[in-house]
Amino acid sequence: MLFRFIFYCMLAYMAWRFVRWLVAPSPGRSNRDRSARRNAAMVRCQTCGMFITESSALIVGGRDFCSRQCLERKARRA
To answer: Quick check: pTM over 0.70?
Structure first.
C-alpha cells in the first residue's frame, strides 16, 4: 500500500515537471525578448500623446501615430 502511494506521488511529480518543461519558454530566448523590449525606443503619438514602441508605430510623413484611428483623426483636424 505504501509502495503504491510513493509510486503514484513520484509519477505525479514527474508529470508535473514535464508539463512545466513543455509550457516554459526557453531561458535564452525569453531573456533576449525581455531585453529587446526593455531597450526599445519609445515615440509619442502625434494625436493622443500615448507612448508606443517605434517598431509598432505608424509613421506617415515623418510623424508617429499609435493607430489608424489616430491617423484619421489627425487628418480630419488638418
So the answer is: no
CB 32 within 8 A of CB 25: no
Contact 44, 23 (CB under 8 A): no
47 near 60, Cβ under 8 Å?
Answer: no
Dist. CA 78–CA 71, nearest whole Å? 11
| Greatest Cα pair distance in the chain | 81
pLDDT in tens, 2-20: 999 999 999 999 999 999 8
Where do the structural domains in the chain lie, given as residue ranges?
2-32+40-77
Query: Considering the domain 2-32+40-77 in this protein, what is its CATH number?
Result: 3.30.60.20
